[in-house]
């Protein structure tokens, strides 16, 4: 196929993937709406012990299997063996969960095809502008999510993940689209490939960490109310215990932080020296990349030294994600700088 045909394939497949992600979102919404509890009488007793023991029905260890008793991995915060969802899905909700996951995987295949054909059409890595970085970074979110689901069964993240990926792709198609074309001279460097691929993967992990942090806040609030006698909703019972969700967020962000450090603060300056003759020039994109690094460094440092787990850590993680999004979108649209031609 020639470049024009490949570009047309990409232009067709990316919107199709957006629609399939939207269908997956609908399926996960049905899944959450259909969640129900098992042994509701034990709920208050279990909730009282959350945070002090790993033996309740909400938290049974540090892996991140969702309701399966899977003991693989070590992603909890309390150092035991498996995380279980505290509610059981009814037949319809369980079917919706499986369909949502299958649709997400199908959308991922279409999404990957769209990114690949875009790169082949342009005869370069597909991240030379905001449109391309949007479709590539959202693909990274899907990769991180599907990898975690495969190993740890984190289907309960599906609702938030498909919402974010579908929204980013929709925005890219409707507002950010740029025809495939050659790179500006400053982007002709293999350091650009290292820089942007690392930024995209760490951004995908930042997104998963932010989704987990939001779910932590919701679950912790529901647990507090349940202790006071307020019945927990079926959607909240769908989630594992708050300590387990906190552990998921921490491990994902602990993985992404060194990747961001290398890709953005090491490979980025090396590329900048190649492109502009200096390693660091306080360009707005460089400054906000550093601010993003500082926020996540503060998150990890606070957890390690001050014991900031739970609500305060979740808030920092969410703030870090918004800083990352502003670095990607806001700086490009609102501030003029050397990076203004690209989404990186």
Describe the structure.
With 344 residues, the chain is mostly helical. The chain has one domain (3-334). It has helices at 3-33, 43-48, 91-122, 130-152, 158-176, 190-227, 234-237, 242-265, 267-276, 284-306, 311-334; strands spanning 35-37, 59-60, 82-83, 87-89. The strands form two sheets. The chain has a two-stranded antiparallel ribbon with strand order 1-4. The chain has a two-stranded antiparallel ribbon with strand order 2-3. Helix 4 (130-152) packs across helix 6 (190-227) and helix 6 packs antiparallel against helix 8 (242-265). It starts with a helix and ends in a 10-residue tail after the last helix. Keywords: Cytochrome c-type biogenesis, Membrane, Transmembrane, Transmembrane helix. The chain crosses the membrane at residues 6-26, 99-121, 133-149, 156-178, 190-218, 248-272, 287-306, 313-335. It is found in: Membrane.
Characteristic key phrases:
Cyt_c_biogenesis_CcsA, mainly alpha, cytochrome c-type biogenesis, single chain, two-stranded antiparallel sheet, C-type cytochrome biogenesis protein CcsB, 344 residues, membrane
How would you summarize what this structure contains?
Helices cover 68% and strands 3% of the residues. It is built from eleven helices and four strands; from the N terminus they run αβαβββααααααααα.
Label the overall shape. Answer: flat
Q: Largest beta sheet, briefly?
A: 2 strands, antiparallel
Oligomer: single chain
End-to-end CA span: 29 Å
Low-confidence stretches: 37-84
Spatial strand order of the main sheet: 1-4
Count of DSSP H/I helices: 11
Radius of gyration over all CA atoms, rounded: 21 Å
- Average pLDDT, to the nearest integer? 81
Helix-strand sequence: HEHEEEHHHHHHHHH
Count the beta strands: 4
Q: Provide the helix percentage.
A: 55-70%
